Amino acid sequence: MDIIPRKVQRLGTSSYVITLPHSWIESNNIKPGDTVYIIESADNLTVTPLKNREAEKGKPIYELDISKIPIPEITSLAVYCLYVNNLTDAIINLGRPDRKGIESIKTSAQSLLGLEVFEMSESRVMIKSVIDDSKIEIKHVIKGLGITVAEVAKILEEALKGADIEKSIELGQKDLLKYQHLIERYVINTMIHGKGDVRLHALVLGTGLLGIVGYLILDTASKAYHLKIRLQQLDETTKMIENILPQVASIVAQPSIKRIEELIVETATLTRELENRSIVSNNSEKTMVLTRLVDAMKLISIILYVVVCSIMVSDEYLKKSGEELGI
């Protein structure tokens, strides 16, 4: 990996640009007018080219006939199913003219990283993956999920202050799905091609549970908003949760025994504090919020223990002994 310095230049009144290294442009066959994807994660940006279509020649195209399934919701789920199984050069056959179904497919594709939709007729749609998975570092994606879940905690904080968060909830749900589906795709692809190691199950469980933490907090924020629950005294607590969540994602992506130990202590302390508050609370609405936050913190604890166990049984710590048991 080369580290190449670039000057940031202004473009217009509010945009900034940098030039791409010529060697990278040549190796990825980039031409003027081509599209590249910029993947944002924490304080890093990754520039990823579209898939090399010449290298893709000969790859099979799949056709999914969902006209046999008389459930409208399946239309949007079909895109997700193809995406996570890395079958994204596919035709979705609706069986009959269905403008609503086609719009549903387009909407679903927009929520997933690196998909394009080509409308072939009023009843058939083709989806194509335009991003090379091999160019994506999954640890950056997982860290991005952690930051998104932390942003969800911030939505709860705003809800408890009485802010209008309906739009934020909708955007939060979309962001959670985007990261989770990309991680699922990576995990399934890894398992199919036998690239996994003993830590893969920690990645699967860790990211899955982290997503559940996000949805739990998001649901709490929604209820707090609609029930008009105002608990500004929880500001400090929600800020602490916001701070912990990206660190948990980093641990799942790049396990570290030392950092896990610190996070386990922080999480246990915060969980006890929330439990004590819920016990002495005589306000049912406040108790509901506190109880849900306790549940979220307990899920975080489970994530940390899963990662610890995966490290313990890895080659780094567990090796075959040359001795035999003399029992």
Explain what this protein looks like in three dimensions.
The protein is α+β, with helices and mostly antiparallel strands and 327 residues long. The chain folds into 3 domains: 9-50, Ribbon (Pemi-like Protein 1, Chain: D), CATH 2.10.260; 55-130, Ribosomal Protein S8, Chain: A, domain 1 (2-Layer Sandwich), CATH 3.30.1370; 135-312, Up-down Bundle (Methane Monooxygenase Hydroxylase, Chain G, domain 1), CATH 1.20.58. Helix content is 56%, strand content 11%. It is built from 10 helices and 8 strands. The protein has helices spanning 22-27, 53-56, 74-84, 99-110, 138-160, 166-192, 200-226, 235-253, 257-280, 284-312, and strands spanning 9-11, 15-17, 36-41, 44-49, 62-65, 90-93, 115-119, 124-129. The strands form 3 sheets. It has a 4-stranded mixed β-sheet, covered by helices on one side. The protein has a two-stranded antiparallel sheet with strand order 1-2. Strand 1 and strand 2 (15-17) form a beta hairpin. Helix 3 packs parallel to helix 4, helix 5 (138-160) runs antiparallel to helix 8 and helix 6 (166-192) packs antiparallel against helix 7 (200-226). The termini are far apart.
Essential attributes:
two-stranded antiparallel ribbon; disordered C terminus; Ribosomal Protein S8, Chain: A, domain 1; 11% strand; Methane Monooxygenase Hydroxylase, Chain G, domain 1; 4-stranded mixed beta sheet; Pemi-like Protein 1, Chain: D
